[in-house]
Structures are given as structure tokens and as C-alpha cells.
Write a structure and sequence with these properties.
The structure holds two protein chains of two kinds. By secondary structure, chain A is an alpha/beta fold. Chain A is built from five helices and seven strands; from the N terminus they run βββαβαβαβαβα. In chain A, helix 2 packs parallel to helix 3. The model of chain A has no long low-confidence stretch (mean pLDDT 85). By secondary structure, chain B is α+β, with helices and mostly antiparallel strands. The chains are: A alpha/beta, B alpha+beta.
């Protein structure tokens, strides 16, 4: 049976009886300057029941993170105004936001960038070309 | 060499002052030679580093539209059927293909300039027609963008003697930059002004503006490769460099005014066509 994704299933009794409980859908913030990527992921994430917000540049990304306190942040590294590294530092330095899982989603494959991002507290580092959107969605669900 | 010089000095000892002066001159010469060698090595290292950085930025630039296309096709299959959504996806895929073609043509233009194969095929052309055609094409590609063309009807025609393909490249590049750096208000105004000698074109946007640390490097080749800018300048750094070369090859000038958060106006001049 298909049920809305922001409901979860609890088994009641011994027989196949389920109770569908409402849960607040998780909020994802995507900081990315490529609007096509944002729109593609937005459609799929919403269909899967997530709340989806996005920011075009690093400054707005950091602002939205503080204002909206999302459950997970997808962060590009090359961004106008403020780099992804600076956004990452800012989020991790903020007590209220430090625990938010952060997935770096970039085209930079340099090992130094990867090491730097992980040492600054990113949970995962994904190179866009190497991952399908389905795999990215799977990573998101794993971290939530 | 130093040993030989010291021996020569020792044999021809002609008083402490003169010897000291000669030793000083020899030391200075040695210092200059050593300094030149170090600088040459530094230059070689920098060139090699620049090449590697360039390849990294180039691959990043080509990857971006490819990833976009890949994700859009995926979302096409993952999303429930919706004709409007499908049309939007196909439209965006078309835009990304255009973007890739442009990146490649920028590289080809750059190669021509670098290898001195840069020729202009000049002919008389109406600049307003070029501008209007480009604006119409952009409106089709970016339906949400407002692109307006303003000029004084009294000054028509706006004729120039130029390579129309190259001037199209400059105009497209300025409009594309305006659209790219205007995440919210995608409003581009193109204004044409004509004096006796020149035609001046202004391309204005209401976008992010150029940040102060980038202003002096805007027309430099590979400007984003500067380490401090690498992560905040999502461009290749050849579009404006090529635009400057093209306008200067037409005896024109190019420049810009910018205000953070208010937008930028890029302008260029071209000599008016005279019979």
C-alpha cells in the first residue's frame, strides 16, 4: 500500500494491522548556484515527502541555515559570495546548527578539498558526476 | 667561477678598498644570476601549477552542464507524469546543451587568440539588429527573464564595421553573465547610445554585483584561478577576457560599473561606420 512519505507505519497487535502516524517531514536545505540541479532535486525530494529550501549563494545559504534550522544541508563548494568551505565553518561554529548533517555535493575531485571538507565536519563528500540523484536521495535518507 | 675570480683578485691585489669593491661587484653579479635562476624555476612551477589549475577549472565547467543534464533526465523518469514539468525539463536540457557548446567555443576562441590565429571578418552591419536577435533568442531560452532593448530611434541606423560573429559573442557573454549573477531579479537592460564617432552599448543587470576583491581582475584570463577566488567565482574566467580582446581588436573600449547587491553595468564602444 502506498502511503504519504511523511507518515510512518507502526504495527499494532499480532495480525497485520498498522497505524499510520503523522510525522513532521524533514527539511532539506540545498545550497547550490545551478538552478537546474536545484529544480531537479526539488521535484524528487518533494515527491518523497521532504520539505525543500534552497539558496543560490553561500551568504544566503548560511543565513537560511540559521533561520530555518534544516534537518540536513546539501552544500556545493564553489558558490558566489561565500565559498562552501566558509559556510561549512560558519555552521559548525554555531552551537545550534553544529549537529546538522552536511553533505558536500561538488564537482571538485581534488583529495585536498575532500580532506578539508571532512576535517571541517562534513558528513559525506559526494562528487556530482559520480552519483545519480537516486543515490544522493539514498544518502540523504541514511543521514536523517 | 667564484674560486677563479677570488684567485684573480688575490693575484692582482691593488689595495683593500678596490679589492673590496671588486668583491662586492662579483658578489652582486652572483646574486643577480642566482636570483634569476630561482625566479625562472618559480615561473616554471607557476606555469605548471596554472596549467593544472586550468585543467581542473575547465573540467569543472564542462562537468556542470553534464551533471545538470544527467539529473534532469533522472528527474524526468522519477517524477510522476506532468506535461508542464516535462516541458520545463526539456527546455532546461536544451539550455544546458547550449551552455556546453558555449564553453567549448570559448576555448576555441581562446586557442585562436593564444596562437595568434585571431582574424576578424569585418563587414558593415547594423548593431541594433544583432542586439534584437540576441535578445529574442535569450527570451526564448529564459522565458522568466525580462530582457529589454532601449535606443533612440532618431539615431538609427546604428551601423558598425565589425566581425558580427565576434560582436555577437561579446553581447551574449555580457547578457549570460547578467543572467547568471541575477538569482532573483533576472532583468537585463541593453541600452544603445550613438555619438558621431562611437556607438556605446550598456548591458545592465540587477544582480549580485562584482565583489570588491574581484574588480581589478574582472578582465583577466582565468581570474577565478587565483586561490582566494577559486571557491567563490563560479566561472571559467575567459569570457570577459575574450570580450576585451575582441572589442580592442575593433578599436573599441570595454568597462563596467558595479554596486554590490544592486547589479552591474558592462559597456563597450565601437567606432561608428563611416563611408
Amino acid at each position: 500500500m502506498v502511503h504519504p512519505p511523511n507518515f510512518y507505519k507502526v504495527k499494532v497487535g499480532r495480525v497485520n494491522k498498522y497505524l499510520y502516524c503523522f510525522t513532521m517531514s524533514k527539511k532539506i536545505l540545498f545550497v547550490e548556484d545551478d538552478n537546474n540541479l536545484v529544480q531537479s532535486l526539488k521535484g524528487v525530494a518533494k515527491q518523497e515527502g521532504f520539505q525543500f529550501i534552497s539558496a543560490f549563494d553561500g551568504e544566503r545559504g548560511a543565513e537560511l541555515a540559521k533561520k530555518e534550522e534544516p534537518d540536513l544541508i546539501l552544500l556545493d563548494l564553489i558558490l558566489p559570495k561565500k565559498s562552501g568551505f566558509d559556510v561549512l565553518k560558519e555552521i559548525k561554529a554555531n552551537e545550534k546548527l553544529a549537529k546538522i548533517p552536511i553533505i558536500i555535493l561538488t564537482n571538485l575531485e581534488d583529495g585536498k578539498d575532500l580532506e578539508k571538507a571532512l576535517s571541517l565536519g562534513a558528513n559525506t563528500y559526494l562528487v556530482k558526476t559520480n552519483y545519480s540523484m537516486e543515490e544522493v536521495m539514498r544518502k540523504i535518507k541514511e543521514l536523517l | 667561477m667564484v674560486i677563479i675570480l677570488t684567485r684573480v683578485l688575490a693575484f692582482s691585489y691593488i689595495g683593500p678598498e678596490l679589492t673590496a669593491l671588486l668583491v662586492l661587484i662579483v658578489t652582486a653579479l652572483l646574486f643577480i644570476v642566482a636570483y634569476s635562476i630561482v625566479k625562472s624555476f618559480e615561473y616554471l612551477a607557476l606555469t605548471s601549477e596554472m596549467k593544472s589549475e586550468f585543467i581542473s577549472i575547465m573540467s569543472h565547467q564542462l562537468r556542470s552542464p553534464l551533471v545538470s543534464i544527467k539529473w534532469m533526465i533522472e528527474s524526468f523518469f522519477m517524477l510522476k507524469e506532468n506535461p508542464t514539468e516535462t516541458k520545463n525539463i526539456l527546455n532546461s536540457i536544451q539550455n544546458e546543451n547550449e551552455r556546453m557548446l558555449k564553453i567549448i567555443s570559448k576555448f576555441l576562441e581562446l586557442k585562436k587568440i593564444e596562437e595568434a590565429e585571431f582574424f576578424l571578418k569585418k563587414q558593415k552591419c547594423e548593431l541594433l539588429d544583432l542586439i534584437k536577435n540576441i535578445a529574442e533568442a535569450k527570451k526564448k531560452l529564459f522565458p522568466a527573464a525580462a530582457i529589454t532593448v532601449n535606443y533612440d530611434q532618431k539615431n538609427c541606423p546604428y551601423e558598425i564595421f565589425a566581425d558580427s560573429d565576434k560582436i555577437t559573442f561579446v553581447l551574449e557573454n555580457l547578457i549570460d553573465n547578467g543572467l547568471k549573477y541575477s538569482p532573483e531579479k533576472k532583468e537585463i537592460e541593453i541600452l544603445a547610445e550613438k555619438t558621431n564617432d562611437n556607438i556605446k552599448i550598456f548591458v545592465s543587470d540587477k544582480g549580485l554585483g562584482v565583489s570588491p576583491e574581484k574588480i581589478k581582475n574582472v578582465f583577466n584570463k582565468f581570474a577565478p584561478m587565483n586561490n582566494s577566488l577559486k571557491y567563490t567565482a563560479p566561472g571559467l574566467g575567459i569570457g570577459l577576457y575574450l570580450s576585451k580582446k575582441i572589442i580592442e581588436a575593433h578599436s573599441g573600449k570595454i568597462g563596467f560599473q558595479t554596486q554590490k547587491e544592486k547589479g552591474s553595468t558592462f559597456w563597450f564602444t565601437l567606432p561608428t561606420f563611416t563611408k
